[in-house]
From TrEMBL:
Transmembrane segments: none annotated. One of its GO terms (molecular function) is serine-type endopeptidase activity. This is Peptidase S1 domain-containing protein. Residues 1-43 form the signal peptide. Keywords: Disulfide bond, Hydrolase, Protease, Serine protease, Signal. Residues 47-84, 142-167, 307-326 are annotated as: Disordered. Residues 307-324 have a biased composition (Basic and acidic residues).
Length: 407
């Protein structure tokens, strides 16, 4: 007798045909069959009929160097990983469930991309929520076991994150939006030129949110003297986590890189930084970029290698998509420098006077909690960042070293 094949958890044994030629061999055959049965029982439960085909296809020799080992898939191994710590990271949630990233810079103030604040609609939002990333990264407690109902109803759509959150500490309504740029001349092409916004929370986060503001850089040298900067991006939640966040690297690059990748670079070069790195995508726009421990800017654009001429050519479908702010991943990134937007931030954050006096031409203000109708705006950018089904967005998990921001 010899063991021939392993089929999943089943052992198949065969008895040589000569064993059945005599009475003595008949006894040996019976003993051999008994040993086979014992081996089969030790190997595990029998394979069901509906599993037999799949098991046969995976058959491997029972012993030897070619024997297969059961291994854990990489995505399963990562299902319980903790998020990197970034207490300033904020998730902005729109009415339609769309999400984007922002950075907490004071107890009630958030800085992000203007396209994040506007959302995907041609009209400014009527309701916005700010969620602490630390909440979303926390494992969700398993529900208490309960008897299954006789007839299971169809699954309900997932609730909005701010409703699933403990709103007492970790979710806040956004009361005011301040958009950079002169509202009287704002057009489709200005979306990329003035892609900065300040959001004011209705009230500060509670202690349970574990949210802490980050210091903003106040001079260009603070950021430009650094070689490597960092950004926080969301990756798909898995296991007990609603979402997870990863700190990834981006390196300051020469302006010539962005000049060859970004059609409007010459219009913003005096207010932006050019970074390079292969772990950021357009759906990460709005995320804060940290250099030397301070917030240096907001990610506005991620551009792959391409010719500028082909990018803006109206006859090209791909060029038209990019010209309208379409998504994509690239290795050249435009980061709007907060130090170079001091006038806007002074009007929007310090004075809270956008649209009035000396700030009239620098920014516009839109209040969300007084019930007034919001104004229309041409929003051509449609970057897809689904933070918890994705904020992920089909964001792939970063393979970089996990880090912790300490401020």
């Amino acid at each position: 007798m010899f063991c021939d094949k392993c089929y999943g958890t089943r052992v198949e044994c065969r008895v040589p045909w000569r064993s059945a030629m005599s009475g003595r061999h008949s006894q040996l055959r019976a003993a051999a069959l008994l040993v086979c049965a014992l081996l089969g029982a030790a190997a595990g439960p029998p394979v069901r009929a509906d599993e037999d085909g799949a098991a046969t296809e995976a058959a491997t020799p029972c012993f030897g160097e070619d024997s297969a080992e059961v291994t854990t898939r990489a995505d399963d191994a990562e299902s319980d990983e903790e998020s990197d710590s970034a207490p300033f990271m904020i998730v902005v949630e729109h009415e339609d469930g769309w999400h984007c990233a922002a950075s907490l810079v004071s107890l009630r103030t958030v800085v992000t991309s203007a396209r994040c604040a506007r959302g995907r609609s041609a009209q400014l939002p009527r309701e916005l929520w700010a969620l602490a990333a630390a909440l979303l990264a926390r494992p969700v407690p398993a529900p208490a076991s309960a008897p299954a109902p006789a007839a299971s109803p169809p699954p309900a759509p997932p609730p909005a994150l701010h409703r699933a959150a403990s709103t007492a500490d970790t979710a806040r309504r956004i009361a005011r939006i301040a958009l950079a740029g002169d509202p009287r001349r704002r057009g489709a092409e200005d979306l990329a030129l003035d892609d900065l916004a300040v959001l004011e929370l209705e009230s500060p986060f509670g202690a349970g949110a574990q949210a802490r503001p980050i210091l903003m850089a106040t001079s260009r040298n603070e950021c430009e003297k650094e070689t490597t900067c960092h950004a926080v991006r969301a990756v798909a939640g898995s296991g007990p986590h609603r979402a997870r966040f990863r700190v990834v690297d981006a390196t300051l690059a020469a302006e010539t890189l962005c000049a060859t990748r970004v059609p409007h670079w010459t219009d913003i070069r005096d207010r932006a930084l050019c970074l390079t790195g292969d772990e950021l995508c357009a759906e990460d726009r709005g995320a804060g970029v940290v250099c030397g421990g301070k917030l240096c800017g907001v990610l506005s654009e991620s551009a792959p290698e391409r010719a500028v001429e082909g990018e803006v050519e109206r006859g090209s479908e791909r060029g038209a998509e990019r010209a309208e702010g379409g998504g994509g991943c690239g290795d050249a990134h435009v980061v709007l420098s907060v130090a170079r937007w001091r006038s806007f931030l002074h009007c929007a954050h310090t004075l809270r006077a956008c649209g009035r006096g000396d700030c009239e031409k620098l920014c516009s203000e839109h209040r969300l909690l007084n019930g007034d109708a919001t104004s229309d705006i041409e929003t051509t950018a449609t970057f897809e960042t689904e933070i918890v089904t994705v904020l992920a967005v089909s964001n792939s998990t970063s393979t970089g070293t996990f880090r912790r921001f300490n401020f």
